[in-house]
User: Fold this.
Amino acid sequence: MIVEMTKIITRISSGSIFDVVFFLLSSSFFMQGAHAGIGVNYGTVANNLPPPAEVAHFLLESTTIDRVRLFDANPDILKAFAHTGIAVTITVPNDLIPQLTKLSNAQDWVRTNVKPYVPATNIVRILVGNEVLSTTNRLLIGNLVTSMQMLHSALVDASLGGRIKVSTPHSLGILSNSTPPSSGKFRQGYDVHILKPLLSFLRETGSPFLVNPYPFFGSSEDTLDYALFRPNPGVTDENTKLVYTNMLDGQLDAVYSAMKVLGFTDIEIVIAETGWPSMGDSTQVSVDVKTAAEYNSNLIRHVSSGTGTPLMAKRTFETYIFALFNENLKPGPLCERNFGLFRPDMTPVYDAGILRPTAGSSIPIDPSPVPSSVTPPTSPASMSPPKGTQWCLPKTEADPDALQRNLDYICGLGLDCGPIQEGSACFLPNTVRAHAAYAMNVYYQAMGRSNYDCDFKGTGAVTAVDPSYGKCTYPG
Assistant:
């Protein structure tokens, strides 16, 4: 490691001392293996959040958080983090991806969203879109890699290519198979045509592969200990005979195995999003303050331990917890608005182990979660779980494109879509409607069986008729 660093520093020694110091502060070289940076996703889908300057000061003075991920390039937030040293990741919105395939547009974007803020603000990474492959938008997907290349070229032209890396985060929906972890594969079609050139770009530029694993969405009452890093018997991978003691390791190793199939085991994996809500519908399992604190504190301890995973031993993982704040304008079920570590007044919902001692002393011994005040416009009756066994299916008139989006979203959350994979019990009939029906029902059952959980923007409806057939059993 020391030899490699000497070579790198020698190459930049012709610049100023500032260049060398800035490189040492911002380089991911020290983040990989030796130090697992713990960050947060700073989302802003709310109307009650504190000013960015107060947030930056709070994170710096009261927490051990040393990096944040933004879902845009908000200029007020970028200014607020100036001179804090906190590593900042910014994001290009999905809808701008086609425009950035032209170098001149990429240069304009860097000129507007990056150059005015560096080096005062420690911008270390630019993400091109978010879970682009899960959108099933061919225009976005087809232009993703080219826009990343053009953005990197624009950074190089601005003498920022060595300091700011370019990547893009993925949901676990990019996997066609994830169980057992050693059999992980990327979806056919995306693997060779999109992900292989994307991984080649990441290798060439020294950038990491970002994924959003959520054990919360893959857990059930039976697998709760496994999802929360609690003591449990473990799950054995029948191919490698390796034993997995937590769900996150299995998800990460499935991604690693898929990368291995394409020949890219040398690229670092970063956890761009993971978390556990502190409040949800009454029918959801272990959605409370205590469980959220347990997951995130165990997560931080695990990814920082240097133990790694069964297939990636002795590694640490740069990790971003979702999310910094409860965001009261987020759509969807109640839990979506309660993933935050902090309330909008910056009081902690719980301590996941990131508060400095002076801040931690103000936490109530038995904190009570405060629900976000804004909820989707739904009547109380429609939020109540229906009585008796119910299933969720697509409406007859539902558009196939909308059903495909439902399918990609649900499987991207990490819920069990295994039964609709090729060769499994519910694969046939091999149609979008049939696969979406199974996936929508899985989501409906996992999220608590409220009518709202089957809405899917008007494409789903609850039924009392069991849709199971042959060996294909729908959860209910």
Residues 138-157 form the longest helix (20 residues). Residues 215 and 260 are 22 Å apart (CA to CA). Residues 1-34, 360-386 have pLDDT under 50 and may be disordered. The first strand starts at residue 38 and ends at 42.
